[in-house]
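Tokens for chain A. Residues wanted.
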């Protein structure tokens, strides 16, 4: 089955289209949303196309989410972008839609929806959206290009991550050629709020790096709240430990209100998504998320990460 063609036919057939993404969005989640909505609205000006989910002030420069009445969902085609599993979909009204299509680049460990297009080799969902537009000769204007460029830059870590391919760079060049202000977008993605900067300093003070290069930090709920991050959150902290030369893998544990821990796992080589799946999570081989019910489970994960890192044989 040519899944992209089937998706395009469904888009042409439906009058109302809702575009969702995951909770706690990053630039790729919002960028792919805004980019796809802009592309489709230009191609089909009479359709009702909405981007939905919680508005995140820190990403408002990418685009504003829209208020939509409940009833419109009942007649809608639902497109869920950049979301690996059902619990992470932002705005649960997606379940009311007539048909649900998943478009994503994360490993498809938890399939959902009536139709799914997953490309694990893509750097980002924004790259996939650009490919989709090119496939069906849909115009990408500067608004769409800026959003999609931001998504690619965000998910490749400014082109530092291993999922950056020659095709990624070709797509990026195409988007830049529309005349977008790439420098300003890069600056937006690189900047942080003062509270996040102060928490970053705390992170470096508290990090433990083992002899084999496994690093971890445990952030208590009280500590996180004391920095008064507001809507900025802690997402921008995640790459920071990877800047340390001796670090090969790292985990950031963030205590939640119920005293469980949200765990962000990253790696420069050893595959950590198997470890994430063992602890109520999953994701990419080098970038995953998980949960720890308490400190005991957190310490278990730290030991497993240490062993995984020690066992890794680096290839050149």
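Reply:
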């Amino acid at each position: 089955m040519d899944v992209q063609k089937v998706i395009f036919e469904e888009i042409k057939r439906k009058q109302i289209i809702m575009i969702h993404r995951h909770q706690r969005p990053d630039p790729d989640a919002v960028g792919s949303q805004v980019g796809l909505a802009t592309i489709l609205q230009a191609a089909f000006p009479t359709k009702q196309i909405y981007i939905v989910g919680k508005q995140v002030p820190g990403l408002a420069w990418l685009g504003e989410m829209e208020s939509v009445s409940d009833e419109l969902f009942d007649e809608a085609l639902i497109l869920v972008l950049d979301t690996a599993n059902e619990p992470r979909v932002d705005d649960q009204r997606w379940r009311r839609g007539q048909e649900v299509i998943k478009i994503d680049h994360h490993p498809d460990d938890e399939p959902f929806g009536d139709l799914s297009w997953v490309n694990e080799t893509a750097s980002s969902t924004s790259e996939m959206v650009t490919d989709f537009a090119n496939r069906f000769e849909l115009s990408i204007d500067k608004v769409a290009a800026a959003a999609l460029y931001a998504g690619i830059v965000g998910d490749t870590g400014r082109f530092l991550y291993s999922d950056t391919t020659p095709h990624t760079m070709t797509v990026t060049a195409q988007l830049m050629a529309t005349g977008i202000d790439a420098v300003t977008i890069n600056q937006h993605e690189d900047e942080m709020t003062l509270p996040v900067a102060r928490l970053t300093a705390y992170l470096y003070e508290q990090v433990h790096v083992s002899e084999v290069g496994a690093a971890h930090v445990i952030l208590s709920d009280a500590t996180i709240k004391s920095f008064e991050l507001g809507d900025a959150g802690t997402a921008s902290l995640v790459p920071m430990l990877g800047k340390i030369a001796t670090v090969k893998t790292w985990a950031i544990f963030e205590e939640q209100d119920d005293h469980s821990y949200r765990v962000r796992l990253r790696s420069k080589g050893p595959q950590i998504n198997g470890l994430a799946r063992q602890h109520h999570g999953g994701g990419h081989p080098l970038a995953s998320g998980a949960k720890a019910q308490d400190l005991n489970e957190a310490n278990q994960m730290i030991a497993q990460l240490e062993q995984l890192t020690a066992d890794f044989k680096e290839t050149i």
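The mean pLDDT is 94. The radius of gyration is 20 Å.
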